[in-house]
Every structure is written in C-alpha cells, then in structure tokens.
Design a protein that fits this description.
Blueprint lengths: L3 H11 L5 E5 L12 E2 L9 E2 L3 E4 L13 E9 L13 E5 L11 E4 L3 E3 L3 E4 L9 E2 L10 E3 L7 H10 L3 E5 L3 E7 L3 E2 L10 E2 L2 H11 L3 E8 L3 H11 L4 E5 L10 H7 L3 E6 L2 E2 L3 E7 L2 E6 L3 H19 L10 E5 L3 E2 L5 E11 L2 E6 L8 H6 L2 E5 L5 E2 L4 E6 L12
Helix pairs in contact: 1-6, 3-6, 4-5
The chain binds adenosine monophosphate (AMP) and magnesium ion.
C-alpha cells in the first residue's frame, strides 16, 4: 500500500495547469495570474502632495517658526485632480490638496496645521526640508517594471495593483470544472426524507462545497446506483469536466464497482489504497487525460481525502504554486494513542494562545462522525509509524479553517 506522500507525488505528476482566459479584475479574485504584468505607467505618475497644505520653496521658509512665521503670497488653489497653472516663484505659495501634482518651482509642502491663512497670504510657522511631504514620481514602481509575477494569486492587493497600472483585464488560469458523483443504493436526495434503509447524500454536497472553496466549479452529477451501468453512465457524463470525483464504492464490498468501471472505461489506474486513516480505500486514475478520484464513502474519509489529494490537484490545475496545506507546530493538549502503520489525520481544535498554538484532539474520531468535523478546525497529523503522542508534545497540525485567525470582538 502506498503512503500519503507517495500518493500525492503520483497524483501531482499527472496534473497540468489548465489554459488561460482573459477576465475582468473582479473575476480574477483568488485565481492565479497566467502572465507577468508590467506597469503601463509609473506610480505615482508625478510628484504629488502627501498633505493638504501649501506648496512652496523651502528656501523661503528657512528659519520660520511659530514666533517668527514666514509670510508668502498665495497665488492659486490646486485641488486633487487639478493641474498647476503656473510655477511657484520666490515668496509665493500654492494652496494644495493631498494627491495634487506639486507645481514646478515648489520643493516642499507644509501641512495646513502649521500655517495660518491671511488675506491672499499665508503665514508659514515652520521651516521645511526640501522634499518634505512630497510623494515622488515612481517611488512605488516605474513604467515598464514587472509589478506582478506569473503565478501570483489575485487578492485585494493585486486587484489594487492591476487597477493602478492600467490593466482592467488580465490573463488567469481557467477555473477547473470538477464533476462530483455520489455512489450508493442507500443514498437519497436531500430534498426528501430518506425512506427505510436510506440516508441523505451528504458527500455530494460536502465535496461540491470543498470544490467551490478551492476556487473550482463543481458540476453536480447526482447519485449513481450500485450497478456498473449506472456508474458508467455518470462517469461518461463527467468526462467533459477537467477532473472527476466520486465518493463511495471503492472498498472491497460486493457492490464496490468504482475502480472496475474506471478501468473498463480505459482509465490508467495509479493506485486504489493509501496508508492513511481515515480513508484507506482511495482510487486514482486518469481517463483520457482527465484525473479521476474515487474517494471513500464515509463522510469524514471523503473530506480528509479531498483535503490531502484533491485540493492540491485542483490548485495545481488552477495554476497555483502554493497547493498543499502548511503543517504548523502546536502543543498537544491531551494524549493520543494510535495503532501505527497508517498516517492518521485526527480532527482537532487549534487555538492561537499567547504561548503559541495549542491543539485539542476531539472525541469521536470515527469516519462517519460529522459532528466532530463540524467542531474541528485542523487535522493533527500522526505520522505513519507513530503510536501517538504524550500530552504537551509538539505535533504537526494542518489548519483548514481560515477563521482560526479571527476572534470575537472584545474576546
Ligand atoms: P462505501 O465505501 O460505498 O461502502 O460507503 C462507506 C460508508 O459511507 C457507508 O456507510 C455509506 O452509506 C456511506 N456513504 C457513501 N456515500 C455517501 C454519501 N454520498 N453520503 C453519505 N454517506 C455516504
Ligand atoms: Mg457504497
């Protein structure tokens, strides 16, 4: 049986980033840039004022103070968005607003709080250094500079950059369309109360949510019955997608047909079991270039397998460079005992304390216990050959819930 590390390696070998498309910068949020972006213009485009105040010649106010202010003639007003009407001559000042271009002749701006307006004049109550309160042309970046690199993930800061450099549209990697198939004769659609012997299809919806969270587009293909024909029909419908995920039917039960059907459809099967818990049965194959994941049926197993294998694959397809969950050190708050032989992913509750990170392993680690998944925000990774950890041990955790970085106001 291959290890988690071997499985992820084998999967990523098969995954290529999808092609590019040009989108408006608002649609680019969360996506990976497919090209370097060069600035069409410098920022700031010209020297401009960092303050509301007076643009002047620093030599004119040398030695000025509260007690001995320098009096200058105010020659015109310059609001943000305006252009200088004339150069500032000796003994002159321009009333300037934040962001307005510094007029020729001026080499400093004194903020309004350090001045007193008169009738067509202004008293400047302090000396100014040359360059004071002036934001220099190009101090952020210059025209022609590469301001964003291929592969950068677009956040609000990158949107600000794209808007500033004059790139309303940008080439990003396409969003993968990911088919989600649930398998099982016991499954009922969630709109109905399940009949005798039936349960609600939770995996289909949870996996679609995970796909969306990973920035891809879920294509819900509903429930396949536990027959080869039904499965084949759904898998055929899934082939036009960029990636296929199914849940259930990958074990050794009498009705577990997923790997057989994948193989019959011409899939190159790379593996069907991984030494991990939860989620040992896990098929991975490639059908005509489309990666297909046969995830286990137990709800937690399917989510853990998604986190470990499918998310990195989707992110790689989406052109991202950072694709696997970081593993952080945390102090374990209770002893954990494990049967060695498989990598265990325990559900834990991670907290950011003054001392650093702590993690509590949660009660109820069964692969069907959804309530523990709801209560958790990280996986505690117990390496394959480990028998567990004593209380207070430093353990590796994979946070999967960004709200771990938030807290209640005042809390
Ligand atoms: P299987 O791998 O198909 O034998 O499924 C293992 C366990 O997961 C069984 O208890 C199934 O009822 C359950 N299961 C499979 N698919 C789903 C699903 N889509 N939603 C909820 N539970 C499921
Ligand atoms: Mg089944």
């Amino acid at each position: 049986m291959i290890t988690v590390e071997e499985a992820i390696e084998a999967i990523l070998q098969e995954i290529r980033p999808l092609g590019l498309e040009s989108v408006g910068i608002h649609d680019a949020l969360g996506r990976a840039l497919g090209e370097d972006v060069a600035a069409q213009r410098s920022n700031p485009p010209w020297d401009n004022s960092a303050m509301d105040g007076y643009a002047l010649r620093s030599a004119d106010v040398a030695g000025a103070s509260k007690d001995a202010p320098a009096s200058l003639k105010v020659v015109y007003d310059l609001p943000a968005g305006g252009v200088p009407k004339a150069a500032v001559g000796p003994g002159e000042a321009v009333r300037i607003m934040t962001g307005a271009p510094v007029p020729p002749g001026a080499d400093a701006v004194v903020m309004v709080e350090e001045t007193e307006a008169g009738n067509g004049t202004v008293a400047i109550k302090k000396a100014a250094r040359p360059g004071e309160n002036i934001r220099r042309s190009g101090e952020d970046f210059r025209a022609g500079d590469i301001v964003l690199k291929k592969g950068a993930v677009i956040r609000a800061a990158e949107v600000a950059m794209l808007a500033t450099v004059g790139a309303p549209c940008v080439f990003v990697h396409k969003r993968p369309r990911v088919a989600v198939i649930s398998t099982g004769d016991e499954l009922a659609e969630i709109e109905r109360t399940p009949g005798a012997g039936k349960i609600s299809n939770s995996n289909g919806h949870a996996l679609a949510a995970l796909v969306a969270e990973a920035g891809a587009t879920p294509v819900q293909l509903g429930i396949a019955r536990d027959t080869k024909e039904s499965l084949k029909e759904r898998l055929e419908a899934a082939r036009s997608c960029d990636c296929i995920i199914s849940s259930g039917g990958v074990s050794v039960g009498d009705y577990d047909f997923v790997k057989d059907v994948l193989a019959e459809m011409g899939s190159r099967m790379l593996f069907w079991k991984v030494a991990m818990k939860p989620g040992k049965p896990l098929a991975f194959g490639v059908i005509a270039g489309v990666p297909a994941f046969g995830l286990p049926g137990n709800p937690i197993s399917s989510m853990v397998a998604f986190e470990q294998f499918v998310r990195p694959a989707i992110l790689k397809m989406s052109g991202h460079n950072a694709i696997v969950r970081a593993r952080l050190d945390a102090r374990l708050l209770a002893e954990v005992k494990i049967k060695p032989g498989r990598t265990n992913f325990l559900r834990g509750l991670l907290k950011i304390e003054a001392e650093g990170l702590t993690v509590a392993p949660l009660e109820g680690q069964g692969s069907g216990i959804i309530s523990t998944m709801v209560a958790s925000n990280c996986f505690i990774v117990v390496p394959k050959d480990s028998a567990g950890f004593k209380r207070d041990a430093a353990v590796k955790v994979q946070p999967f819930d960004p709200s771990v970085f938030l807290k209640e106001y005042g809390g």
